[in-house]
Write a structure and sequence with these properties.
The chain has five helices and two strands. The chain has helices at about 1-30, 50-75, 80-85, 90-105, 115-145, and strands at about 40-45, 45-50.
C-alpha cells in the first residue's frame, strides 16, 4: 500500500509539473490564439496533439489517474459510472468511433474547434456512453442467462 500510494503521488506531482509547463509555454510563446488546437497537427481531418499539447495530455492523464486513486482507494468512494465504462470499454470504443466520426462529423457536419464547445460535447458524449454501456451490460446479462451452462472440464 505504501509503494502504491507513493506511485500515485509521484504521478500527480509529475502531472502537475507537465500541466504547469504547458501553461508556461503558452504564456511565454504568446501564440495566437491561446489554448487552441491550431498549433497541433490535423491528420486526415483529425486532431493529433504535438509539442506542448503533449505536456497537457500526459499531465492531465497523470492527474486524472492519481485523482481516481485518491477518490476510489483513499476516500473509498465507489464510482459506478467508471466501472461501467471499464467493463464495456471495447464495445464503447467501437461505438464511439461510429458516433463521433460517422454520425456527428460526417452526417451532421458538427465541428468542435474551441475548448468550451469541445468540453461540453465531450461531457455530453461521456454521459451518453455511460448509459449505452449500462444498456450493453443488461443485454449481455440477458444473453448469458439464456445460454446453457458450460460443462466443467474433466480432470
Amino acid at each position: 500500500p505504501r509503494a502504491e500510494a507513493r506511485y500515485f503521488w509521484t504521478a500527480a506531482a509529475l502531472g502537475a509539473l507537465a500541466v504547469s509547463a504547458y501553461f508556461l509555454y503558452d504564456w511565454l510563446a504568446q501564440t495566437s490564439p491561446r489554448l487552441s488546437f491550431r498549433r497541433d497537427f490535423m491528420l486526415n481531418r483529425h486532431w493529433t496533439p504535438r509539442g506542448a499539447t503533449l505536456l497537457w495530455v500526459a499531465g492531465m492523464t497523470s492527474l486524472l489517474l492519481a485523482g481516481t486513486y485518491l477518490v476510489m482507494e483513499v476516500w473509498r468512494r465507489r464510482l459506478a459510472w467508471l466501472v461501467v465504462l471499464g467493463r464495456t470499454a471495447l464495445a464503447l470504443y467501437f461505438l464511439h468511433q461510429v458516433i463521433a466520426l460517422t454520425l456527428v462529423n460526417e452526417w451532421l457536419g458538427w465541428r468542435f474547434n474551441d475548448w468550451p464547445r469541445y468540453t461540453a460535447a465531450t461531457l455530453v458524449f461521456l454521459v451518453l456512453l455511460v448509459y449505452v454501456g449500462k444498456a450493453w451490460l443488461a443485454v449481455r446479462r440477458r444473453l448469458r442467462d439464456r445460454l446453457p451452462p458450460v460443462p466443467a472440464a474433466s480432470a
